[in-house]
Amino acid sequence: MFGIRIHRSLLLVLGLASLSTTVEANLIGGCVPDGEYDATVDYFPDKVEVRASKFWEIDYFNNYKKVKNEIDGEIFILYQCGTPMPSFSGVDLTHIISIPLQDGIAMDTTTHIPYMELLGLRTEIKAWMGSSNFISSPCLKQMIDDDEVVLIPDTNDQAAVDSLKDVLGPNVVSFHNNRAKYPSELLNVTLGAYKEASNPEIFEWMKFMAAFFNVEAKANELFDAADSRYECTSNEAEIIAARSNLGDGVQPVVLWASWTSFDGTEGWQVGTCPNYYCEFAADCAADIITSRSGTIDFFGSLLLTTEAFVAEASEADYWIYPSFNWDSTFELHKDVLMNFKSVQNQQVFDNNGAGASAWFENRLAEYDLVLQDFCDVVGTADPRHERIWFRNVFTESQHENEITTCEDPSAPLVPRFTPCAEVNICFSGDTTVRVDSTTTKQMKDLKIGDTIQTGVQSYEKIYGFGHWQSDQKASYLQLHTDCKSSPLEISEQHLVYTAANTRVPVVAKSLKLGDKLLLASDENSSCGITKITKIVKNGAYAPFTASGKLVVNGIVASSYVSLTGNSYYLAGLISHHWLAHVLTTPLRFFCKYGECNHTYNTDGVWTSIPLDFVQSMLSKSSMFYQVLILIPLILINLSLMAIETMLTTSFGFFGVLTTAAMLLFRRSSKKISN
Q1: Cα separation, 509 vs 467, whole angstroms
Q2: Using CA atoms, how far apart are residues 581 and 583, in angstroms rounded to an integer?
Q3: Residue 144 bridge partners (DSSP)
């Protein structure tokens, strides 16, 4: 079966699979074969949904997509190649384009490059219009140098631009910021990300681009991952700030400002809100100095005089200098700037850590990484994070993190980030459990020793918590069902039972609409998932029971999480629930038959050390090392589990006593005979 799946996926990618009834994924590399078009088939099972952006929308039909750019009122009909071209009349600015694009794209804006690279579409860039000097991507520069990308240095050379249809093909598409700039014969597509306000709104234009190549599944994956990392970093910053020694409600103060002397106009440009850096400050639990009191006109914005700048900015704890002329600025204003708190404490950072061009090219596509950098500057980031963009102008060199070599032009750009230590192993405090047949308790009110429901007719005592913290901010999936119960709020990595997997729980993040969650009302009842949303709440709880199960909001769940975060079987053989249950045997045993002193770290986690060890080993170690470590651990814990089982059952307990008595009698008999 595994081989068949691989073969089918390969055929789909090549556009050669049989499409008599349905398709399993969007066709990425080709067209529907001649004679195999079926009007009843949905050729775009992978779809994007506009969740943040304000200036574009998309609708899906069986063999075409309708994409609208609100900025210019452009409507694009993108139809699957190999299927009939839809016909429309009376619609202005409509372009009918066959997809996935076969002749590639021409580009002129560097901020669009990383979107194509993240999607794995770098080699679809066939022409660059404008100077290549401002391109940061080493792979794209290499492709231009190797003549794999046509370079048109002068964008005003309309004849050269139009010639791309002859050089690359009649269906080459131009991605750009300004449609009016190119009154050419090319198929011109305006990307309006520059009109959006927030970081997610801008980043979501990657989905717009993905629709032209049928790679919506990849775009969804990238968008959701960046959104999740951003949210986790923000939650983490709030927790770190709350535990800092800054005092009640006192937040670090950051300045976002630079000096300009462009075209004879001199002055200090200080940040104004709303803006992307204001988002970063708020999400890093910091206050930002802003100013609209400038008196020097600078292309519509107002610059501050040095005197006014000193009065407003000198007491900032941190200074982010968003330009590349700090050295000359400092020399020019040294006498004044030496009185700044941020300068005296050497807490000034510019955006030249990875190079000037890279900042403008990549920061929009790596906004979650910029947030981590910003939080690191103001002291509310995970201490493991190493800054990429912002460099300390006093202690760090320019361009230290610049990417200068290209390993493989066809390989996708890999996002850079420090994995966030998000709490992802719990239930929210608002979920409920039954303590008897008529009484329920909220998770936040449970304590060790409480008896809770673990099955249809079974109740067990809580002997401990894998996680217990009332003020912990955590991210949860909210699973709405067609039953009348409240939605289940569970972390993505937690394990839960379904009607299709009554013996082995699955990881919550793998659930999808229509999946049926197992109920504890009887052996075969279930609830279908009707909606899945993400929420953030205070409180994180993970009760441990003897069976490793519990019933939450009427749904049967595990006490444990996926040890790899995205699956529920190890090597396809061992369930994560079983392995976690085996590895928690010592705690369970000693809580039942010996001392059970539960202490939790500052994150409210008892299991952090063993859990971190196992997760790290499974994610980084070789299979040989995993087997070498896990087998002895499993055998030791299985032995302890066997003793636990014998002592738990009356027959087993009697057997242990009988065996012990026989051994003592035999030993005493030997002494007597001697």
Answers
A1: 19
A2: 6
A3: none
